[in-house]
Structures are given as C-alpha cells and as structure tokens.
Amino acid sequence: MGGSIHPISLELKKELLEGKLKNPRDVVLPGMAAVGGMVVPALVFFALNSGLVSIKGWAIPAATDIAFALGVLALMGDRVPSSLKVFLLTLAILDDMGAIIIIALFYTANLQVDYLYLALIPLAGMVMLNLKGAHRIAPFILLATIMWVFVLKSGVHATLAGVVAAFCIPLKDKWGKSPLHSLEHALSPYVLYLIVPIFAFANAGVVFKGMSVTDIFLPLPLGIALGLIVGKQVGVFGVTWLMVKSGLAKLPAGANWLHIYGVACLAGIGFTMSLFIGSLSFDDPALMNQVRVGVLTGSVVSAILGFAALKIAARRDEKEQAVAA
User: In terms of pTM, does the model score above 0.90?
Assistant: First the structure.
C-alpha cells in the first residue's frame, strides 16, 4: 500500500491545497532549487568521469532520498521554522519526480507503451472517484495498486504511479471529512518503520573485501560523493541565493541563509534513490560496490553537515530570542 500510493506526496498535496504552498509563487523557489540540485551534481560527476565507462552513472548524485532527508530535519523538532520542512519536502518531491523522468528517458531499455496506456484506466477511475467526493479509501488503494503494476510492467519506475495516485486522493469528501489526512496518518508508520528500512538494508550492502580506503578516490565513487556533497550544496543554495537576490522569490518564512545551507546539505542525502539509479546503471558487481561507497560516503557527510548547520542556526536563534527577552 505504501508503494502504490506515495505517502510524502499526500503531504505535499495537503500543503498545496491548504498549507504554505497555496500561493503558486511559493512553489517556484523550491522548484528552481530542485533543478539546480539535479543539474550541478550531474555536472560534477561528468567532470570526473567524462570518457570513462562509469559516465553511465551521471544521474546517481542527482537524486535525493526524501524519507532520510526529512528524517534528519525531524531530529531538530520545532527548533527550525515549519516553513523549512515544507521547502525541503517540495524540493525533494520535485527532485524525486525529476529522477523518475530521468530514469524513464535514459535508464529504461525497453519501454512498453501499451502498459502505460493501460495505466490510464485506473487513473481515470481515481479521478472520477475524486470528483464525486468519494470517502472510502479501499477503491483508491485497489485502483492505485493496479496502476502501479501497469507502470512497473511498462519499464518506468513505479514510484511515478505512487506520486500520481497520491494526488488523486480527495482532501475532503462530500461530508467534510479528509480521506487524505486519514491515509497519510495510516501510511506513515509503515513507510517509516518497515518499507524504508527494508529498502535501505537491501541496497546498502558494501563488500569491503579487496577494497582499500583509497578506493573512494576512484572516479566513480568520488564523482558520486562530491556530486552529493558539493554539487547539491552549490546547486540548491546557489539557485536559492540567485532567486532571492534577484527579487524573483523570498526566503521561507522565519528562515535564514544558514537554514537554507542546512537544507541544501540534506538534499545531498541520496541514499536509496541514488542506489536504485546505480543499480540501473551498472551490472558489474565491482562497479556497483563503488557506487555504494560513493553514495554512502556522500549521504553520510551530507547528513552530518546539514544537521550541524541547522543545529548552529537553532542555537543562534535561541540566543537572539534570549537577548530580546
């Protein structure tokens, strides 16, 4: 159920309809930051792997693991502005969707278009249920699962089906109740404590036999690690800075530049999504092991830097509030 309906997309829809993203202009900043956070890491990787067989993995550092990035931010509790969570949530969702498009265009060898056409049938059913204000979740889950299977069979990453299905869930039914809120609440524990850990452990195994510390400096793992650490920071923070300074956007309410830097670092937690793209890029176990080393190194360093930056920002805010009092 957590796979056929993307739970984090439910939260994004809620913010778009009744939260901090009701104004379309508020989506522009995280949207552009997401673009920067995909393009710059890919360029960093390309610079280190151009002309090599490993260039096939150029999209690996472009991804962000939404669950882990938001999980690190959640460790700060209410010590960071709530708008910052929405900013990271939107950025990560759009980054995830961008990664899915990249997979569909560049990493899908045999695209079965007929299955995509079939996927439109359950999608149309969910849209009709939404328009009628349906309140029962079961029909949505059934149709979402059917669509998920068709999309999977087409060769496109099935997460796309989960994202689309989530946006079909009604915010309110004709009785004023919220199926979206109910489903979001029901899915969260399964995703957080079951699905994400299983996927992480299944993909994160690194075989250290025959490897040395210097292997991180090989072009493939180094390109991934630097893409996640440096590329994400430059892409997300740089684009945000340009948008704000040019007057095209404003910082999230209550956030400062150190907060934005912390979020830019957290966007470098590629983990499960980066590992998935890596598995599509390489069949060679040795190269795949290098991918894991690069992804884990880049993700862990990004998480530490992001948490440290947000911690410092929170302490500064607390000191300023104490002085003002």
Answer: no
